[in-house]
Amino acid sequence: MFITLEGPEGSGKSSQLPALADFLRDEGYQVIVTREPGGTAVGDQIREVLMNLKNVSIIPRTEILLFLAARAQHVEELIRPSLAAGKIVLCDRYGDSTLAYQGYGHKKDLPTLRSLLAYATGGLKPDLTLLIDVPVKEGLVRKRDNASEWNRLDAYDLAFHERVRLGYFALAEEEPNRWLVIDARKDKEEVQQAMRKAVKQRLEQT
Ligand code: TYD
């Protein structure tokens, strides 16, 4: 089972992942926790290029291809083999981030992005995607309060992040069976419970 977490900046999704993984392990599942960009040695090197505050000259097409290059490696090296071994893969961001950020955020052509995405992933889509949603301003304040997490990609303007958030809503509406929207303004424990419930339900369906 392939589960992805998506959301705008500062939704707290990354900090929820370890507890979700522990819960599933206690239920007897083998769980892999990973993230994008990254998840492999090559992917982590690409991540470093993407996040580096010094790389102000990266143009949008380069950025797209770097995200997709990291993803192609991730899918072949880690995600597919783990799924084939019967494990649950919990991935912090995946293809929908490209559609939300590069597509809706940077207004790059969505059909082109979708076909590049299909090429990079060999068509692998998540079984379940949790949208951990937070209003843009709240999310950015949370992130700025934690300066060590601030990176090149957070520095885009507010309107950009608003488009990303609305993009996520549009994607979720397109495939309501794959997506579940969780309000991250609730307290952490409630968010965690909602995530567990959604994952359990999906596991019971398969
Ligand atoms: P990260 O520090 O991992 O942020 P977060 O904790 O919000 O997940 O940085 C990932 C950044 O990369 C984030 O700003 C979203 C962006 N991103 C894209 O723009 N496109 C993509 O395809 C992916 C995977 C991430």
Summarize this entry quickly:
This protein has 206 residues and is of the alpha/beta class. The chain has helices at residues 13-26, 41-51, 60-84, 95-105, 110-121, 136-144, 158-174, 188-205; strands at 2-6, 31-35, 88-92, 128-133, 179-183. It binds thymidine-5'-diphosphate (TYD).
Structure write-up:
By secondary structure, the protein is an alpha/beta fold. It has eight helices and five strands. The protein has one domain (2-205): P-loop containing nucleotide triphosphate hydrolases (Rossmann fold). The longest helix is centred in the middle third of the chain and has 25 residues, at 60-84. The model has no long low-confidence stretch (mean pLDDT 94). Bound molecules: thymidine-5'-diphosphate. Thymidine-5'-diphosphate binds at residues 9, 14, 36-37, 67, 92-93, 97-98, 101-102, 149, 151, 153-154.
